[in-house]
Write a structure and sequence with these properties.
This protein has 367 residues and is α/β, with parallel strands linked by helices. The chain is 31% helix and 21% strand.
Length: 367
């Protein structure tokens, strides 16, 4: 009798919400594909869970696309702009804001930018000739991957026009998803790919606007006395004697390959995308033997080789902004939602030779 009641309940549930178990699409996109004839194909999912798939034979001069959050809120329009790789080295900016690992949480990502006057309420750049740097990992875990990518993309052009800079560095989750490792990817994205009869990574292939853009993002960037990298640099990396330009180029060459293909592509690609490479290495901030913790002498050698005084990393999550090796290493990856709720550190703000922990209420303390 008990089994019969359970069975009857399931039948009733399915009759009222047939899409629940079959899987229903939710708001997503836009994904823009470039076509061989110069046109574009634009795919998105609307408020009703319906795929909108349209083609333009050419791109109008005033072309732009609306970007909507997963809750249905319109956010901003994004226009296309020329794509190129940023120089890996630049002078120090008067002001810099550095955050990491937004992982599809648009509200948390935008809130810290608004609170620290990087963008206005309409998501426009107001940070002048200063720098915003996002230290990897937009993909996975959250429901708003596309809005974050498109906002960074949009702000990059707006900052450039004002003499500023927006820098997005590749993280391990960019390498995972583009290499078709979907271990942490939300079902909404997998379901859309299934409906389109393509792998999820194809939505970011090099035939797409965001794929082309991601293919030109750096892995390591140096600004003044600071080196930025998603995970860290270790002894094994030091022994390879890489220059930064080579690292950035080689990571990108293998970015759209899976793990086996990367290993087969070249020894360099396998290493850079591996556990001791800059996208995964945790030994700068973890002492566990399995992470091959970095000795201070090797850290000093790395700082000397790249002519910097500090290295800023994300990747490894901490309850708040942390420093290591007498402030030579700074980690900026936190639980964005928890730290948003508790008004704890969300990133760092650098003003000339001063560093501060910042939150969604602005500056919290000097670092």
């Amino acid at each position: 009798m008990k089994q019969f009641r359970i069975y009857s309940f399931l039948l009733i549930l399915l009759s009222f919400c047939p899409g629940l178990c079959a899987g229903t699409l939710s708001i997503d996109g836009p994904y823009l594909f470039h076509l061989p004839n110069g046109g574009v194909r634009i795919i998105s999912v609307d408020n009703n869970g319906t795929i909108q798939d349209s083609t333009l034979n050419s791109i109008p001069k005033d072309f732009s696309m609306p970007v909507t959050a997963s809750n249905g809120t319109y956010l901003f329009d994004v226009a296309l702009h020329p794509i190129s790789r940023q120089e890996w080295e630049s002078k120090a900016f008067d002001e810099q804001l550095i955050i990491s690992d937004p992982h599809g949480n648009f509200e948390c990502f935008a809130s810290v930018l608004k609170a620290n006057k990087v963008i206005d309420r309409n998501y426009n750049w107001i940070y002048g000739s200063n720098q915003l740097l996002i230290n990897g990992d937009v993909f996975d875990r959250g429901e708003d991957v596309l809005p974050i990518f498109w906002l960074i993309y949009k702000l990059e052009q707006e900052a450039r026009e004002m003499g500023g800079q927006v820098s997005f560095l590749l993280g391990n989750h960019e390498a995972m998803v583009l290499g078709d490792n979907l271990k942490y990817t939300k079902e909404k994205y997998k379901l859309l790919a299934e409906q389109l009869n393509m792998p999820y990574s194809a939505l970011f292939s090099q035939e797409t606007e965001l794929g082309r853009w991601l293919a030109t993002r750096n892995t390591i960037q140096v600004t003044g006395d600071y080196l930025f990298v998603h995970a860290g640099l270790g002894q094994a990396f030091l022994e390879k004697d890489f220059d930064v330009a080579k690292v950035n180029a080689e990571v990108s060459k293998a970015l759209f390959l899976n793990k086996q293909q990367r290993d087969e592509h070249s020894e360099t690609a396998g290493f850079l995308h591996g556990s001791n490479g800059p996208l995964w290495y945790r030994g700068m901030v973890r002492n566990d033997s399995k992470y091959n913790p970095l000795h201070i002498d090797d850290l000093d050698a790395i700082l000397k080789k790249y002519d910097v005084k500090h290295i800023v990393v994300g990747h490894t999550i901490f309850p708040d902004i942390r420093v290591f090796y007498d402030k030579k290493v700074i980690t900026v990856n936190v639980d964005n939602q928890k730290n948003f709720d508790k008004v704890l550190g969300r990133g760092i703000y650098i003003n000339k030779d001063k560093r501060y922990v910042i939150s969604d209420k602005g500056i919290l303390s000097e670092l």
